[in-house]
């Protein structure tokens, strides 16, 4: 292998000419291209044509049919009135059409956000609208300040563990609806299970039968695919395609069938199932989100509401971005996702739609996958989805009265089962047990103490794990002889962060047997002040019996050491070979003695 | 430079034969040597002799003379009765004599711990005893579980910033005592200053004069050294030595002088100064620490007391260990400090002394320095210090009545001025601005919101800073040609933690121009699962136009990649040269085409 190896920090690898930073930023801000990227509709709308329109309508209607039952179901999880879930499937979608950069992403209420919201809505429904507004503001702020890199600190095992915990918790809270047992549904997995088992004697036969029948039919429908081969007849191909749409709209169809059943039974004067009940349809009340509310006949001001959200409240915007960006990446294919733009889009979605009685919303995995599979071409698909849901919330609310609750619970439980990722446990077990511990902690804390605490516990443990790895930097040692001197060359690689301070001084002490200790710093990038002080004190301590040579130190680190201890300069040596410097020591000493 | 470079993880560098882990631990637990290390008195007591005794008595008495005024002063900072400060200078010291491994460390109440304690004592003095007990338990637990490495995550700038904020806050709260102004002293630096300036019209002349006179005399006494040369007469040498003891006991002497002054004025019927007042001397009440207390006529149980401490309560044991270990290290000289043993010692000190009405205590920097300077030989010095303080608390409490409060305030302010470290600001400014930001945040949050929040904010920012550095791993690139192929070799160094996932995939995409991309993993230590997934997806995405060669991957990382994506095996190559593998590609392709 020939050629010159050039070690360089990554930012200089872009090869961008060195302009003044201010100029670069101002150029970026002023160019029309960058403004168009911030409003992606200006890019795709001019190219829109009739073919796109048809395909977007088909996808929009398919997704809309799923959005209606899911919207109602997630509203029930959060504890808000069902129409709020529907509104949240309408308005954020329209906003996303303007700002969203990823055609597949479908914005709306999600089960996880609804589960996080539930404990605040227990006080008052006003918290749902304020949560949407504040989450929107937080996300926008992160997007504008380009703080997206903070999300990199939430690792895959933590996200996966959080999703699993959320899925378990949401499924557990649906047990109440599925079996129509009494008691509260509980706000954590554990409390939901306790509630379930302590009220298990109140199980209602017909709700249970309907719920379980719904689960089975959804699972069967999902797996039934009409096989089509190249030799199939045209008729069969058409049938297969129709069947495919049928399968994709299975949630809506199942709800439709169960609602019809409940309605017919109602006509015969029977209501064996718990029903969704009256929904206040029509358009929402447009206006700013509530900055004060009434809880138990007391008025709580904005500060009081903020203190109810507390620090845990930040988990909602965090999860909203994480969900949305993860989904955008999953469906972006070979194009890279503009994280900042996604944050702006989701931020605006939440902030603006909080003026239309919406709960927090973000990209939904199931509906995005459906959108993608239905062949959506542009974000305009969201508009058609929104129109369908809007139609339903204005015209069909009387029909929604008859949707059995156990059917909705069943739909949620089936959706949750697809979120649980067991493969990663096997992969982590085989490859990295420490990361498995992080995953397990996230799940365990999430299901027992609450989802917010789960994600925080996971992130903290993960940072400790990563810092522990960094605290034990990679070191290559190399012992050799020059003349009759035993020498050791210690090459330290990577950054020396403060967490490695103790470790580095222990390591240097361990080589106290050899005569000359060479520190090779070619691959040293940064050194924290605490580490530098420890290194200096070990060198000063061992120097009575040993000779230290500091070889090839980068200028910045050399300046730091000389600043901390003046008179350190004589120990620094540079050059490709260390042997001559070690031989030089003998000459110096001889000069000194004679 | 000759010889074979052996890259190895650091744990394998100790050269210890590979025993089973269980056997190693059991060996360690059972050996009498390791038990003796846990009870260091068994090591030094058998060697004790009369010479040691004399030197320990001299040091003990010198330190004791400082411990008396400091004990009273720190009790006033915490808001506990003055005798509690004295008890805390007695009992923890005796316990440390048994368990402590560092002869110089002097355990007792410290200004920072007292400042942290003050807000809890504002409810009830019982919180002081319970805080000592619980801090002791926490520290013991950390010591027994060998979790000392967690302290490495508190970096030098954070500790320094915290100390500075604490010194500023404590000095500010003493303004009230120094000038005898009315109003409360405030619990943060900012509130103390606001209090001071809003009550500045209530300044009392004589307290102010006495306080400022005390400050000046302390500063002058500290700097006055009698010069002794080799030719000095015997008489002069003796005078100089006596003067030295005089200087070391300056705190006690100044208090003595001011107390005499106050007493004489009292005899003449005048009390121009605020005095310490009645101290309930004698022995403390021995018994378990209080697990319930009364606040405002309501009984608070153990759980209630715990919730008053809250999560911020953990800062007390944390600071206690940090102070103590930092001090032990500063005076250990060339011997290394056994962190676990220090934790056990400080843990026992606090836990046991909470049975004798003591507040939390730890190693005190000023008294440890004095102990060292006074020539202490063994931890027995603590016993003599404790005896002197015990004598004073039983016999001298009537005299303590007359100690002017402004004198005590002056002593504290002078002690605090030595804690503020301004040098580090200059060093950080020159060498690392990001660490300066961490330092500044710690100070600013500490003085405005409270010391506990300062240390937490600093630690969190520092972790983010360190993780950000890790998220941009060091990369060396090397472009070369083999035949007519443009090749690039990307060598990644160090661990690839999850925070670098996005960065690594961006970096790989940037090299999409070249024909062959070689990933050199010789210096790669660990790869997190998220990064591995990103690397795989980028490789799969770019592979249609490029050839990827994964060169010299460690077995573990190779297994991880193959586990995540089966059929990845063919891309891995090993060997000292990459050229032959690239030439091999041409042959393969030729075979494929013809």
TrEMBL record, chains A, B:
Cell compartment(s), UniProt: Membrane
Residues passing through the membrane, by range: 57-77, 129-151, 203-221, 251-269, 383-401, 408-425, 437-464
InterPro entries the UniProt entry points to: SLC26A/SulP_dom, SLC26A/SulP_fam, STAS_dom, STAS_dom_sf
Main subcellular localisation: membrane
Domain STAS: 490-562
Coiled-coil segments: none
Keyword annotations from UniProtKB, A to Z: Membrane, Transmembrane, Transmembrane helix
Keyword Transmembrane helix belongs to the record: yes
Domain of life: Eukaryota
Name of the protein in question: STAS domain-containing protein
